[in-house]
Amino acid sequence: MCFKTTKMLLLFSRRLRRDAETPVCAPARRAQSAKRNALPARWRRGTFLTLVLAVMGLAVHSAQAQTLYRFQTVLSDIYTYNRLNSVAINNGGSLLWSGPTQEGPQIFLDSPLHNIAALDPLAATIIDSRLPRFGTSSKNAVWVASTGQIDRDTKQASPGSRYQEDRIYRYAPGSSANPTIIGSTTFAEDGRAVSALTNPDVNDRGQAIFRRLNYQTFRWSLLYHNGSGDLTGTRDLLADYSLVSAPFISNSGKAVFTARQNAADPIEMYLYDAETDSLSTLSTGINWANASIRDFSDDDIALVFAGSSATGSFYAVDTLGNATLLLTAGVSGVSRIELGQRNNRGQVVFADRTVSGMGGSTPSFGLSNLMLWDNGRLIRLTDNPLGVSIRAAAINDRGDVAFLTQEYLYENGVYTGQRRLELIVGTAVPEPGALAMCVSSFGVGVMLWLRNRRRR
């Protein structure tokens, strides 16, 4: 509509200008004048001003469309090793991450001042903390805690003890002041690992899915939790598999993952439906030997990355196995694709690594930026200096993003052994509609014309 209005004004202004510039005799001039006077005065006198303002409105709209996000640094600190991980953001804007304190590892929700769980300093690590990414208000959370030096029976800190446990915790606001255990595995008395838990995911209903590795047989199992909030609601979906990848679960109760039962079997994509308690394989045409599921959004579309980071591609795969190519590294304006999460609007946030870094005692500078693929449009959200990389990234259905950056710190060209880690949130700024801009510009034009008329 804005285009049609602008086009009409442009054609009318050209007609007025042509009439004014063409030599005509007196009778013809009077006829043209009468024809013009038949139109409302506001169209004749405000044409050029309105046209200019409409064009300016479109220009402003185009310029503002480039400013998509308002960024805020939630946490910034310097560490000697990686201490922040697994950032998650849901549709309510709630933020979840794990981080270190002097009192031990803790899980934070929304603010560094609001911890929803704290483990004893003897606890080894907290990893894989997740929120339901697409709930409107849910703040269910899951994470893995690997606890060490605890008493086998009381589970309390016991310095010198070699007994350890891996636990999957679930937090549900309002139901309990303390997180509950929905998955648990033990270590042997001599400290040898028996099995480990990893990669939990949870939805708004509190349903969760995660995997377990048996260190004695190096075989995998997949476990499902029905939302009850304790161990009684957890059971095996798959057991004794050669491979099970990180699983994802949506609010519909559907979960996706890849697996193979024996080493000689091909890797396949699986779909589990909690509503019907059914497990099926999907035929996607993707070579899963070099592919992985990066996300499973609440519209039941999986984000799959296939190939190497330098030449691989993102695909959107539905629950029927239909795969749609989204973008490819090296030919779609990106160098190397890392990470990846997709929301219900089809937006994908990921990291584009343009400079590789090296690890070890003297790591070299690397560089990666946060990118947004928005249904065919590729937008760079950060402009990081050399040495800063994206370590984790998440997106919700509103388009808000949360990410972690890491910078190796040097003094006089020598690595200090420290890194600066920052947790940053980007709030999506709604783009002004072109129609609203044109209507606003037209209104301003009318007001200026009325002001000029009063002055005459």
Would you mind describing this structure in some detail?
Helix content is 17%, strand content 42%. Strands 14, 15, 16, 17 and 18 form a five-stranded antiparallel β-sheet that branches. Strands 1-29-28-27 form a four-stranded antiparallel β-sheet, with no helix packed on it. Strands 2-3-4-5 form a four-stranded antiparallel β-sheet, with no helix packed on it. It contains five helices and 29 strands. It has a domain at 2-64 and 435-455. It has helices at 2-21, 26-37, 41-45, 47-64, 434-455; strands at residues 69-79, 85-89, 95-99, 106-109, 115-118, 125-130, 141-147, 165-171, 180-186, 195-202, 208-214, 219-225, 234-241, 243-244, 248-249, 254-260, 268-273, 278-282, 291-296, 302-306, 313-317, 323-328, 337-342, 347-355, 367-374, 377-380, 388-395, 401-411, 414-428. It has 456 residues and is of the alpha+beta class. Helix 1 packs antiparallel against helix 4 (47-64) and helix 4 (47-64) packs antiparallel against helix 5. A hairpin with a 6-residue loop joins strand 3 and strand 4.
Unreliable stretches: 1-32, 51-56, 58-67
Total of DSSP H or I helical runs spanning 4+ residues: 5
Structural class: alpha+beta
Content of β-strand = 35-45%
Number of β-strand runs: 29
Q: Which overall shape is indicated by the principal axes computed on the Cα atoms?
A: globular
Distance between the termini: 33 Å
Major beta sheet, specifics? 5 strands, antiparallel
Helix content: 10-25%
Taking all Cα atoms into account, the compactness measure Rg is 29 Å
Mean pLDDT: 78
